[in-house]
Amino acid sequence: MSGPEESVGSLKNPQDTLARRTIRGGFWVFALRIAQRFFDLVRLVILARILAPSDFGLMGIALLVMMTIETFSLTGFQQALIQKKGNIEGYLDTTWTVLILRGFLLFIILYFIAPYVSVFFETAAATSIIRVIALSALFQAFANIGVVYFQKELEFEKQFIYQFSGTLADFVVAISLAFMLRSVWALVFGLLAGNLVRCVASYIVHPARPRLDFELTKVKELFGFGKWILGSSILILLITHGDDIFVAKLLGAAALGFYQMAYRISNMTATEITHVISQVAFPAYSKLQENMSKLREAYLKVLQITTFLSIPLSGMIFALAPDFTKIFLGEKWMPMVPAMQVLALAGSLRAVAATAGCVFTAVGKPKIDTKLQVVRLFLMATLIYPFAVKWGILGVSIAILLSVLVSSIGFNRQAIRITTCEVKEFGRIILFPSIGGVAVISIIMGLKAIMSIGLWEFLILVCMGISGHLFVIYLSDRFFGYNIEALIKESFRSLRRV
Fold first, then answer.
1. Cα–Cα distance for residue pair 156/80, rounded to 1 Å
2. Which of 28, 105, 258, 489 could form a disulfide with 336 if both were Cys (CB 3.0 to 4.6 A apart)?
3. How many CB atoms within 10 Å of residue 33?
4. How far is CA 316 from the centre of its chain?
5. Boundaries of every domain in the chain
6. What is the mean pLDDT of residues 259-269?
């Protein structure tokens, strides 16, 4: 098999240090997520105007079923290959073969359980949607396994092409069909188009040509690490989508449409920052796992950048949720606003905890993540029913916030212990962005009290909120040695050198 040697050729350049590759990788991952979320947001606003909340709820039910089956059959092999030291070329064919077998199994299961899912959720239309969406499992399974090198070797400029091609296809197909069909099928065919295009693109952007091969010893070796990824992923599924299942069953498809829309918008910044972190920090931390001082330094820098971005942005979403919904989505979506505001607070906590989760996996201790996810799941399961009965989707959101809050404390404590960083330093890093977040909320809420809000006023409030945060950070840099400006300049210098 050819290809992997070529894909890592840049690593032979002695000037291409890990720090520079990490910064360059972060730039490309961030650029990818910004581009994806821009198109997703435009797509969301357009489709929200054309389609009903129940359409989004139907699609949500179908995706829930697919994600559930996918997660319970997850191998964790890709993460194992990224974490594994040395040459992984000999493992690619076996991994690809296992993924294809898994893809066919997923398709068969989804096809035959579709009618039973419809009965469970009391939504007959879900049957055909689930069966068509099941094709995505096959498209994903046949994707070129060689793309794992993009993350392992921090070559995210190629990952950008691979992933964004699918985003663009989804956008074009979904928007076009929405105007013609005005039904949930626009979402369905958009999803299929995106996954199909990504599958094709994976063979264009990477030269590896995997073959069917199955070596049991390699499967056992990879699964030794992957089993913890599987366990953690199942818990994350129950945590991040158990609430969706609960809402769909107890409150109905329309309520699920409101709740999922609230979750997507409120966690948009936190989810994207978390994604960037996991894409870049995990392989970078893995290469530093035997140098604790360097790992600690990298962890604190990632934590600083994460809090600098995520906390004030979540505060902005909290303050502007009613105005964004009314202006961009329309009055029919206003019932979701209180839930969106609560979930925005949970999103900022999730982003901070994500910096710790990457540390656990990189140092070969994914079971820590699994155990902490159990705690979060237990709290959510305990609180969600009584809260939902009393306050509907707002109650579900409060249960999510409380479970995230408690588990985040555990994540951060374990990260501090493993990296041996000082609690004082950790607290100092998150203090100033938190003050900036409070400033963002205070400025926006204060201005809203004295002005009516239209599109231009909304944009002015966004600018004022950002300005308030940056002013707080400037004072923190100047008088308290926060040093975020130096970190950003260092990142841009390294980016220019590569």
1. 18
2. 258
3. 23
4. 19
5. 15-245, 252-498
6. 84
Distances (CA, A) of 297 to 17, 186, 304: 16, 47, 11
**Distance in angstroms (rounded) separating the CA atoms of residues 456 and 368:** 47
Tell me the C-alpha distance between 345 and 311, whole Å.
Answer: 8
Residue 271: pLDDT band (50, 70, 90) is: low
DSSP code of residue 498:
-
Q: pLDDT tens digits, residue range 388-399?
A: 999 999 999 999
Q: What is the DSSP string of 198-267?
A: HHHHHHHH----------HHHHHHHHHHHHHHHHHHHHHHHHHHHHHHHHHHHH-HHHHHHHHHHHHHHT
CB atoms within 10 A of CB 260: 25
What pTM was computed for the model? 0.70
CA separation for the pair 271, 262 (Å, rounded): 13
H helix runs in 325-451, sequence order: 337-362, 366-391, 393-419, 423-448
Residues 6+ apart with CB under 8 A from 355: 277, 281, 299, 302, 303, 306, 415
Our CA angle for 397, 402, 403, nearest 5°, is 95
Backbone phi and psi for residue 16, each to the nearest 5 degrees, phi listed first: -85, 75
Cβ neighbourhood burial of 492 (10 Å; 0-12, 13-18, 19+): exposed
